[in-house]
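seq as requested:
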Amino acid sequence: MPRQLYSVVFILMLSCAGGPHKALWECVEMDQDSSTSVNDSIAKLAYNYYSRHGSLRNRMMATYYLGQAEFDAGQNIPATIHFKQAYDLASRLRDTTYMGFSCLRLSELYSRNLDNNQSAHYEGLAIPLLDHIGDSLAANYSRLHMAGYYMSQGKFDCAESITDSLWIDNPAYWSKDYYALVVKGNLHFFQEEYDSAWFYYNRVIGMSPSEPIYFGRLALIAEHQGKRRLSDSLLILSQKGLSTSNDSINYYANKSEIAALRKDFETAFRFQSFEYGMQDTIVYHTLARSVTHSMQTYFEQEYQAENAKRKDQGIIFLLSSIIFLSVITIALIALKRRREQVVGHMAQMEALEQELQQMRQGQAGAHAVISKLVQDRIKTMSQLADAYLSWSDEAVILREVQHGKALKEDIISEFRKELRTLRDDEHFIPDIESALNSSHNGIMTRIRKDCHGLRNGDIRVNERDFQLLNLFFAGFSNTSVAFMLDMTDDAVRSRKKNLRKVFLSMENGCGNEYLSMLSRAQHTSDTSAL
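struct tokens:
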């Protein structure tokens, strides 16, 4: 029988035999055999049961442990909601234990979501509650988190007073002392007190030598002190210990700052680009996973408002559809009647033609009268034919197609007129080259320099090729370029292919940059082709 089914049976049996509180603990403890964290499905069963049955305390404990299960599973949004519910229930019961631990978990959740103000708010609530229940270790951790918050706000004196009061260098409190040393090292490092920071970071590495971030910090300190060889050695140690994305971000940040101190700005810029790219990725995924409870509430309100708006829109759409269908029905009825009239007129016309033939046979001498009758009948036939054609679908479609073709020709003519104006402007291509040099680090100047006198077999770059590159990089399509330079499309494609071969033959590494630029221009020109 599956474990979840056992849990349901235990809830029903133990709630009758030993009370709901015992049922909750039996369900939770039964799932502790293989894992130290509470199973999400087991905690949810207890939460669903006690939401309808049991005392307020049972409901509070079930809510807290469901939040703990979601916290362990990284489900930050529901965990935030359930810890807030647990805090409210514990407040009603005046249970300082669950109030304190709910605030502690909420501060960690808001810290995950990069909301430092809310995290500090719940840390401030948790510290007196944890002190009241005698859990000094958890309270001290909260104080150290507050010290980190003060440091991020520039309140270094407050942060240092907290860490000085908590650091007792006792093996029994190894993890607390370790975190206190980290905070003190960061304090002195950000205040540029490098000798003190060196001392604290060495203590941190002595307690946990597998943290690459502190080797990087030591490398920065050594660089500030002019010890370049020691800085390089420490950077190598930092690189060997990389295991997470945050480790890589810190490594690239340290590498970039050291390169900047050495006036190697090209290397500094390159590593800074790596750092920013990884930071953007991590922040994107963090924000995508970790929406705070206030944002969740806002989204729920917006969702309800959107649902009400959609209902109103649905009613309006339904009424509009009914009106539209009614109009269409009336139009179809009118069209049917009109066609019936046309058919009737055609029948009358046939009858008149028959009468005319009889008149011709009976009144062979009355040519004038017959001629007038024939003219009247021809006029009637013409009017009927015009009326019939005005209602035909083929005539309507034909008019729309002709109108669309004329509009398209006008647009193409206007576009070619603009291209012709640009082609006649002798300053247009030089202006493009100047703009490209300004926005892409002098790319055209570098290409002219790298391609000067360069040959790849029978291929040689000339001024016409530079004009082509300017237009490609500016986003013009092959057809537009051919029109502006009085070339054929095949000639433009052939020259572009030759330029790719020239860039591939470059040995100085710049060819890859030019190829990348040309590929992006190729994509743009494909999507904007005439």
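The radius of gyration is 41 Å.
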